[in-house]
Amino acid sequence: MIRFTVIFLLTFVAMELFSYLVHRFVYHGWAWFIHKSHHQPRKGMFEWNDIFPAIFASVTAPFVMYAVGFSGSTELSAISLGITAYGLIYFVVHDLYVHRRMKRFRFRIPFLRTLKQAHAVHHRFGGEPYGLLFFADPRKMATEKVDEADPV
Q1: Spatial separation of the C-alpha atoms in residues 78 and 152, rounded to whole Å
Q2: What are phi and psi of 10, to 5 degrees?
Q3: 3-class DSSP state for residue 44?
Q4: 5 with 74: CB under 8 angstroms?
Q5: Mind giving me the DSSP string for 55-122?
Q6: Pairwise CA distance, residues 128 & 48, whole Å
Q7: How far is 62 from 69, CA to CA, in rounded Å?
Q8: What are phi and psi of 66, to 5 degrees?
Q9: Cα separation, 112 vs 145, whole angstroms
Q10: Cβ–Cβ < 8 Å for 94, 120
Q11: Distance spanning both ends of the chain, measured CA to CA
Q12: FRET pair for 103, CA 20 to 30 Å: which of 4, 44, 58, 116?
């Protein structure tokens, strides 16, 4: 159980690094033509950028089914569940909370409010932070104060 937990947590943290690198060098690089829809006001429920989570899910789902259902490998199961947990938290925090895809979805947790401010700095200025969960103090990232009520 300890081995499973350690692998799960390491995978979860590795996903934040993966997310950072993909966001920085793919989304804000050669795939900007798709990702830029995420930096513009959304018209309707979906945006072109939503293709990325669909691609990641289509790759991850078969891996999770194999790892948990057929492999019998504790290590593969821990890795697949670490990836899944990160994706779920990313969806809930980033899409539902930060970008308010569910208007009534709110948290009163100081860390998440600060995360939302950091993400607003990214949307305003286009630079850091590229990751979701690990970021610098948003007050140090930009000279302009970011109000939590500002739409992102």
Answers
A1: 34
A2: -60, -40
A3: coil
A4: no
A5: HHHHHHHHHHIIIIIII--HHHHHHHHHHHHHHHHHIIIIIIIIS-SSTT-----HHHHHHHHHHHHH
A6: 22
A7: 10
A8: -65, -50
A9: 17
A10: no
A11: 40
A12: 58
Do residues 132 and 145 lie in contact, with contact meaning Cβ atoms separated by under 8 Å? no
Q: Which amino acid is at 110?
A: P
Amino acid at residue number 22: V
Tokens 């930009």, residue? 142
Question: Looking at beta carbons, which pairs linking 50-57 to residues 24 or more positions away fall under 8 Å?
Answer: 52/27, 53/87, 53/91, 56/87, 57/87
To which residue do tokens 């504790």 refer? Answer: 74
Amino acid letter for position 120: A
